[in-house]
Amino acid sequence: MAQPILHVTGLTMDFGGIRALNNIDLDVNEGEIVALIGPNGAGKTTFFNCVTGIYQPTKGEINVYNKHKGRQISLLGMKPNQVTQQGLARTFQNIRLFSQMTVLENVMIGRHCRTKSFIIGALLRDKRTLREEEEIIQKSHQILEKIGLTRYENEFAKNLPYGAQRRLEIARALATEPVLLLLDEPAAGMNPQETIELVSLIQEIAAEGQSILLIEHDMKLVMSLSERIFVMDYGKRIAEGTPEEIRHDPAVIKAYLGEEVDA
Ligand SMILES: Nc1ncnc2c1ncn2[C@@H]1O[C@H](COP(=O)(O)OP(=O)(O)OP(=O)(O)O)[C@@H](O)[C@H]1O
Ligand SMILES: [Mg+2]
């Protein structure tokens, strides 16, 4: 049996008296697109924050499968940059870009986590550093081409249209060559045209074998993209299944509508 690339068990996160995550078990397999959905405040972003090292969970295990080592690695106690090095890259619900840097530079920063040169190399500008710098620029160009942002390459990130800024966040995450890409509401605030373009972009990325865990409120997008849907409410799992199963699940309908409805 292939190992899941993300293997989370019993994940629990308390904020004072609030249990934002309550004993969550969630796996993502290689090449899968899994959606994480649930009403506002369900705990979806908290799940991402725990998995990516922003919060240390109260309880539970978070493991990624490391292909080179042939075993699961625990992410507990790791800082966000260490988690990125273990192959998890994310975007944020509220865009976080380096607004005073160019589009190309924003992607190059993502790429830097995959290089070996140290600060000393950057200061001395030795051969290896220069070679790596060249590789970073080339790779960043390729990613921008793939994401369709080449024409904005030298613009400051802050000057991009909103939809393009959201795509740039995805580009920066992809630059780290993630094993798993985590997207927190990538379609939030997008107009219908931008959303359509985003869906085809995610499909293209997935077609190359990229595993994706996606938080999204846009149900049309969720239903058309995901192979499996994990539904949370009040920090708990309330359902898990294919889009078709989830569409008809009474617990899901109840959570979204706040009342019992016949499926
Ligand atoms: N840093 C924090 N301190 C205290 N409470 C928090 C913190 N972060 C999240 N919470 C609480 O945890 C719960 C889950 O929040 P979270 O942001 O994970 O929800 P969400 O499912 O992402 O919602 P949305 O769809 O609105 O983005 C909420 O009750 C929230 O107020
Ligand atoms: Mg959220």
Describe this entry's structure for a reader:
It is globular and about 60 Å long. α3 packs parallel to α6. It is built from ten helices and ten strands. The protein has a six-stranded mixed β-sheet, sandwiched between helices. It has two domains: 171 residues, P-loop containing nucleotide triphosphate hydrolases (Rossmann fold), CATH 3.40.50.300; 79 residues, no CATH class. The chain starts with 5 loop residues before the first strand and ends in a 6-residue tail after the last helix. The model has no long low-confidence stretch (mean pLDDT 91). The chain has 263 residues and is α/β, with parallel strands linked by helices. Bound molecules: adenosine-5'-triphosphate and magnesium ion. The site of adenosine-5'-triphosphate (ATP) has 12 residues, from β2 and α1. The site of magnesium ion has 3 residues, from α1.
Which properties best describe this structure?
Rossmann fold, binds adenosine-5'-triphosphate, alpha/beta, binds magnesium ion, 6-stranded mixed beta sheet, 4-stranded antiparallel beta sheet, single chain, 10 helices, about 260 residues, globular
Per DSSP, what share of the residues sits in E-state strands of 2 or more residues?
15-25%
The N- to C-terminal Cα distance equals 35 Å
CATH homologous superfamily caption of the largest domain: P-loop containing nucleotide triphosphate hydrolases
Domain module count: 2
H and E order: EEEHEEHEHHHHEHEHEEHH
